[in-house]
């Protein structure tokens, strides 16, 4: 069951209505109900993986209790180790086994030893990269004393499997989400109404922006040698909007859905295409993952409070791991490497924390300098993303090489609708760039609000396309 | 909560009204099949794949055969789809019987037949009741005669293209005939379209195998339809090189249809051997265009009338 399906549009109001009918009863009923529907939601993909998520949740629930009960630091560490080994082990087996095996065989063959093995047919359980990180943060935070272990297995299981964000995030920290499961939710009109607005905007980004751009992008990346430089350049730019529309659209629908049930999830995208440098870009892009890596990998490594060499090492570690998290392919690792290369000069010149506030915070339009910085950051990240999208590093280099070959003088079958919807996206998000999401217009006059709702609905209806998945499901 | 439900309901209601208005006015522009499920049950039907859906125009047939001595129960309804949806088989048969007005005693049923309609690929096991078309319309539908048809929307939303309200390149008429529009008529475009069709049909050669289950379902369908009127078999006109591929795949096709026709006392009109074959113009070697369709439908009506004289 994916968000942009009729089934979900039927599922959500039914689940919502029953949830608030039950809300008069008790917290336990609310949580039990959410757990059941979350498992049902996940089971719609593949019911077999319900055992996996249940086992993972159970072990982390138990580990957290043991950490709390242990008095010796070493014992606590050992239990955190169990959680780490179990979660990373699950991820490693389901996501990376074939990658490591393939790479090892390639390495042996490269140095002259003949090696062979048969690839295992491992199906990647949807959402595993997200929920393993979520449960890991729980046990680590219990170990660090930031949060008390949950006393209710239902609460904890519901937190891990909470259906709006289970499949593709945001990766919620236990410190933010778990306490919300420990308190009975009451219906709040403003929260629910804003949740609906955010969902509507999420649908626009997914089915209008991302899925329209996808058509051109798929053609451009299918065989770069058959496309002109212009087509490849447009394909690269469109991919930026496809990826943003797809993933941030999913996040908006997830956060909006959660708000309907009385939950506040963390903002996952804060208008990253208005970022003025790469550091700001990643503070605004997939924020829940960036912050996860920052808190659980970067800071423990010393962060930026170490010597120069270690500082640079830490940046590379973070970006390489981030690349590897996205997928078992050298393209993602290289993508991470390029991001680190782009970031390091900024850090060395101590300009990486220069742009902490949103651009043009006190004016409507950016200055020329700000505009140029936004443009430059966007273009460079687009080129780096070619490695994210291409099937192999060689393909990515070929793609970029062909862009600069200036061959062919066409822009291809350029879809004017895609361009129009990208412009709409950018204009609306620019206007609301200080808000939590693009359609945060709750304080505007009623005709603006309703006019916007109807306009977005009509654009979705007339220009939406239907795809059967979200890009980030594969991660 | 009440305020929230009121406002959300108002929003959904407005969306619903807009959607309904679009379906009523542009149903034939925004989806290839939607209109077929918005008309009443049919007394007489044209059945088959895309050749029949685009090639046989019910309005012309109605006009021509209403003068028949047989006093057929009209109007005709074009309940043909494409080869992806309507190979012969239990799913199509079931849907035809849903659309058919069971009270009909003297209807006309034109079955437009191609070799591919009796075939299955290896991906599905017909013997186990698995059919490649089963998840598609009209087989995933229960209601085939309501207007507006929300069931179709719910089940097949991904097939709609609402942007075609602004730019139409086809129109599915209320009588089920699909008219292609705005087709460029130059030779280059024709050849490009024909190449697509030829490549597709050539791929069929490797993929498809004749299916006993589909043939059995064809016999069953004939029995069902004969209870309600006269049945006619038709092989639509197509370009000779595409016909050659078909005949290479199933050389005995005409003999097979002939034998079934003879044993069931049905007439088989094979327009691939028609003397005026070239006059039935098409736009891709495979599908008859509007003008060619008019001639073809008239010729078909004449053939039906000649049987009854």
UniProtKB/TrEMBL annotation, chain A:
Question: Could you tell me the keywords of this UniProt record?
Answer: Acyltransferase, Cell membrane, Membrane, Transferase, Transmembrane, Transmembrane helix
GO BP annotations of the record are: alginic acid biosynthetic process
Q: Where, by residue number, does the polypeptide cross the bilayer?
A: 6-22, 34-58, 78-97, 315-338, 372-390, 411-431, 451-473
For membrane topology, the record states: Multi-pass membrane protein
Under the cellular component aspect of Gene Ontology, which terms does the record hold? plasma membrane
**Superkingdom of origin:** Bacteria
Q: Which GO terms describe its molecular function?
A: acyltransferase activity
Its subcellular locations are: Cell membrane
The answer to whether UniProt assigns keyword Iron-sulfur to this entry is no
Among its keywords, does the record have Transferase?
yes
A UniProt-annotated Pfam family? MBOAT
Q: Which family does it belong to?
A: Belongs to the membrane-bound acyltransferase family.
Q: PANTHER family annotated for this entry?
A: ACYLTRANSFERASE (PTHR13285), PROTEIN-CYSTEINE N-PALMITOYLTRANSFERASE RASP (PTHR13285:SF18)
Q: What is this protein called?
A: Acyltransferase
What species does this protein belong to?
Answer: Aquimarina atlantica
Q: What is the lineage of its organism?
A: Bacteria, Pseudomonadati, Bacteroidota, Flavobacteriia, Flavobacteriales
């Amino acid at each position: 069951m994916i968000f942009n399906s009729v089934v979900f549009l039927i599922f959500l109001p039914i689940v919502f209505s029953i949830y608030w009918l039950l809300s008069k009863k008790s917290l336990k009923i609310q949580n039990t109900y959410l757990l059941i529907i979350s498992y049902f939601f996940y089971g719609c993909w593949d019911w077999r993986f319900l055992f996996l998520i249940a086992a993972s949740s159970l072990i982390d629930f138990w580990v957290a209790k043991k950490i709390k009960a242990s008095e010796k630091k070493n014992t606590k560490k050992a239990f955190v180790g169990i959680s780490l080994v179990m979660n990373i082990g699950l991820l490693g087996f389901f996501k990376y086994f074939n990658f490591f095996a393939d790479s090892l065989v390639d390495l042996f063959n490269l140095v002259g030893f003949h090696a062979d093995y048969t690839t295992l047919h491992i199906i990647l359980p949807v959402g595993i990269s997200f929920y393993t990180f979520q449960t890991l943060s729980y046990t680590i935070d219990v170990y660090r004393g930031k949060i008390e272990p949950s006393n209710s297995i239902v609460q904890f299981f519901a937190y891990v499997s909470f259906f709006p964000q289970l499949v593709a995030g945001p990766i919620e920290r236990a410190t933010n989400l778990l306490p919300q499961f420990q308190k009975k939710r009451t219906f709040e009109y403003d929260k629910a109404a804003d949740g609906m607005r955010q969902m509507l905007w999420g649908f626009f980004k997914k089915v209008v922006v991302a899925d329209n751009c996808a058509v051109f992008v798929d053609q451009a990346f299918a065989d770069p040698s058959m496309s002109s430089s212009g087509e490849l350049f447009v394909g690269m730019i469109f991919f930026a909007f496809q990826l943003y529309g797809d993933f941030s659209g999913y996040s908006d629908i997830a956060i909006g859905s959660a708000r309907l049930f009385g939950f506040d999830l963390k903002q996952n995208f804060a208008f990253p295409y208005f970022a003025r440098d790469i550091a700001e870009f990643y503070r605004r892009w997939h924020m829940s993952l960036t912050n996860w890596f920052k808190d659980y990998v970067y800071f423990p490594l010393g962060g930026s409070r170490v010597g120069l060499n270690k500082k640079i090492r830490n940046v590379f570690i973070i970006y390489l791991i981030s690349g590897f998290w996205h997928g078992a392919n050298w393209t993602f690792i290289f993508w991470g490497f390029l991001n680190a290369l782009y970031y390091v000069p900024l850090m060395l010149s101590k300009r990486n924390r220069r742009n902490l506030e949103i651009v043009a915070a006190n004016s409507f339009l950016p200055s020329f300098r700000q505009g140029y910085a936004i443009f430059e950051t966007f273009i460079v990240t687009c080129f780096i993303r070619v490695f994210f999208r291409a099937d192999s590093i060689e393909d990515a280099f070929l793609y970029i090489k062909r862009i600069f070959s200036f061959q062919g003088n066409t822009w291809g079958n350029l879809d004017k609708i895609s361009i129009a919807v990208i412009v709409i996206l950018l204009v609306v998000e620019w206007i609301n760039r200080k808000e939590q999401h693009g359609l945060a217009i709750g304080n505007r006059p009623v005709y603006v609000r309703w006019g916007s709702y109807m306009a977005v609905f009509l654009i979705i209806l007339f220009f939406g396309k239907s795809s059967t998945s979200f890009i980030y499901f594969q991660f | 909560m009440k305020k929230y439900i009121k406002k959300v309901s108002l929003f959904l209601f407005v969306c619903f009204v807009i959607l309904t208005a679009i379906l009523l006015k542009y149903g034939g522009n925004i989806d290839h099949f939607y209109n077929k499920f918005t008309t009443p049950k049919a007394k007489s039907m044209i059945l088959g794949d895309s050749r029949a859906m685009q090639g046989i125009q019910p309005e012309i047939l109605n006009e021509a055969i209403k003068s028949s001595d047989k006093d057929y129960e009209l109007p005709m309804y074009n309940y043909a789809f494409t080869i992806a949806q309507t190979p012969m088989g239990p799913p199509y048969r079931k849907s035809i019987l849903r659309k058919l007005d069971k009270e009909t005693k003297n209807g006309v049923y034109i079955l437009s037949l191609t070799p591919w309609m009796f075939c299955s690929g290896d991906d599905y096991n017909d013997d186990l009741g698995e059919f490649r078309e089963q998840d598609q319309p009209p087989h995933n539908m229960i209601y085939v005669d309501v207007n507006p048809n929300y069931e179709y929307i719910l089940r097949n939303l991904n097939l709609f293209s609402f942007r075609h309200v602004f730019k139409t390149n086809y129109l599915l008429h209320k009588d089920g005939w699909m008219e292609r529009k705005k087709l460029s008529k130059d030779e280059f475009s024709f050849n490009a379209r024909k190449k697509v069709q030829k490549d597709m049909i050539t791929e069929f050669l490797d993929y498809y195998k004749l299916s006993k289950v589909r043939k059995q379902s064809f016999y069953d369908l004939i029995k069902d339809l004969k209870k309600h009127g006269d049945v006619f078999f038709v092989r639509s006109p197509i370009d000779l090189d595409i016909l050659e591929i078909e005949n290479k795949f199933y050389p005995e096709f005409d003999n097979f249809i002939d034998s079934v026709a003879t044993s069931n006392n049905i007439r088989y009109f094979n327009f691939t051997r028609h003397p005026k074959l070239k006059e039935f113009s098409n736009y891709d070697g495979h599908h008859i265009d509007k003008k060619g369709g008019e001639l073809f439908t008239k010729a078909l009506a004449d053939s039906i009338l000649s049987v009854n004289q």
